[in-house]
Amino acid sequence: MLMGNKEENVLYALTQKELIGESLNIHQKLLHNTINSIHECISITDMNDIIIYVNKAFIETYGYSEEELIGKSIYLVRSENLNDSANSSINKKTIDGGWQGEIYNKKKDGTVFLIHLRTSIVKDDHNNPIALVGIAEDLTEKIIARQVLKEAEDKYHNLFWELKDAVYESTPDGKFIDLNPSAMELFGIKDKSKISDDINAASFYLNPGDREKFKLVLEREGSVTNYEIEIKNRKGEILTVLETASVVKDSSGNIKSYNGILRDITETKRQEDKFKQYIRDIAEANKRLYESEIELKKLNASKDKLFSIIAHDLRSPFTSLIGLSDFLLEDIEDFSKDEIKNFVIKINESARNVFKLLENLLQWSKLQTGGLEFYPVKFDMYTVVIEAVNLLGNNAAQKSIKLINEMKKELFVVGDYNMVFSLVQNLISNAIKFSNADGNVRISYEFDDDYIYTKVEDSGIGMNNKDLLKLFRIDTHHTTLGTANEKGSGLGLVLCKELVEQNGGVINVKSELGKGTTFIFSLPKSKE
Question: What is the rounded distance in angstroms from the CA atom of residue 389 to the CA atom of residue 474?
């Protein structure tokens, strides 16, 4: 069925009414939410002082629910201290255009507190008053802040006059604005009335340039803490002070003054210097004590090592010598020539091992006691290596080991020839000991501006990292049988390290298990 114009008009009017109603509802919600977001307490009363609206802040501040407030007199929250005359005066001024001031109100729990109240009147379109609006601010926190500020001001005033440290205020060009009594005493000033006339802060700096340096730091950073300077007061005393200061700026951001505190640390510095010297003396004594302890430990380790060698490493080969010789002596007539020769070879081998051990032991003992004389001369490392290779050639040949000498002539160093020869001999002998049959022992060199580096490299059994850390240490007994079951005392490498260091060099080792070991030591190059 089609609608006529009349029905269409009615439908249109109803639609418009709904839209207007919805719009009003949205605006009311927006207004309500806006008022509730305000932190001040808002109340609206009719002309008979009956509450018709309160916002969320009002409810939270006074402790009432909305139901407990709506329809009640606004005097519910007024303090008994506010008499009828005062209430009437506020109402009259509100109706006349508005009132503001501080009054006491009361919460639901009976707490009386101060508020700042602003009132105004609401009129209808015909200018008739229809409601009163009150906007209240709780002054509790402001009162506390005022009290804290006053206490701080009182405290600052007392501190300024009673503080033992010197407190000052000055202009950037050095004129004093104010000084506390401690500052007067520190600077040696008697008449405070003249501080702004003929006394300048710069005149008290012992070094004139310190004032400008201080200003640069202060104005750049805005504040300075514990800036140490020396001053000379009017009594002629030179004092050390710690200055802590800050700049004070005007509303335009320009520096108008400096506020600062000076702490006299002259006596503290003197005591500090004495204490530092005392600490240095103690540190030196501790250092000497520590060095003595280390030396004592080394001596004890040396002694223990010596006893170990004497008790074990010397005893074993001598036991072997005595046993073999006794066996041969008792039954020599029953042995063939080949058997006798075999006994003699073993006796000779044991005797050589004992002799080498005794030689190392004697040399090491002399090093420990300072009995080994040191005669540094210029010599060619090539000569030393050739001599050691020739001496140990038979040892290498017995194991079919090839000694490869890659040293060249005129590798001149400075050191004790006999010590260096013993060092090279020990390292090559050690390389032969731990090389497999048909292996190689290579002796080569490197150099730089100050040192000649001699390398002894074998292709033997090598070592793991754990065993590497035990080398060169007298306090760790580390000995391993050679590839042909050759025995050792563990003293040889300790001796090598001490011989190298005695000659101004160092010794290092690189090794990989199953691939061989390389010892490299340095000796000072001859500059002649």
Answer: 27
Handedness of CA 283, 286, 291, 292 (dihedral sign): positive
Indicate the DSSP class of residue 198.
S
**Smallest Cα–Cα separation from 368: which of 479, 508, 494, 472?**
494
- Which SS3 state, helix, strand or coil, does residue 150 take? helix
Starting from the edge strand earliest in sequence, which strands make up the sheet with 51-54, in order? 51-54, 41-45, 129-138, 112-123, 99-106
The three-class DSSP label of residue 409 is: coil
Quickly count: other Cβ atoms within 10 Å of residue 228's Cβ: 11
3-state secondary structure (DSSP) of residue 188: coil
pLDDT by residue for the chain (528 residues), tens only, comes to 444 555 555 555 555 555 555 655 666 677 778 888 888 999 999 999 999 999 999 999 999 999 999 999 999 998 888 788 888 888 889 888 889 989 899 999 999 998 999 999 988 888 899 999 999 998 888 888 888 878 776 776 666 667 788 888 888 888 888 888 888 888 888 877 767 666 788 888 888 788 888 888 888 988 988 888 888 888 888 888 888 889 898 888 898 989 888 888 888 888 888 888 888 888 888 888 888 888 777 767 666 655 555 554 555 566 667 777 777 777 777 778 787 787 777 777 667 766 766 666 666 666 655 656 778 899 999 998 998 888 778 778 888 889 999 999 999 999 988 888 888 888 888 888 888 888 899 999 999 999 999 999 988 888 888 877 777 776 555 566 666 666 555 567 777 888 888 889 999 989 888 888 899 999 999 887
242: nearest Cα among 180, 166, 171: 166
Residue 428 CA neighbour count, 13 Å, CB half: 28
Give dist(CA 46, CA 497) in Å, integer.
107
Residue 116 tokens, joined = 């700042």
